[in-house]
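1st attempt posting a full record on here, be nice pls
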Amino acid sequence: MASIVITYTDGKTFRLEGVTNADAHASRAAFEGPGTALDVAYRDGGRERVAHIPKALIRSFETELD
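the predicted structure (as tokens):
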């Protein structure tokens, strides 16, 4: 499983662990692609959630692949 680490402009981080390599690649492509926001789907205690993150607030986007 892979991880996605997003660091915001204020220095806080948002880490998603347990994503597939394919999902990590797709998220990277979405981040680098057109648009002003990044939607990241994740699970929180068994609940499906989506984080809508404006790209202007993201300082760095990293993927850690298996």
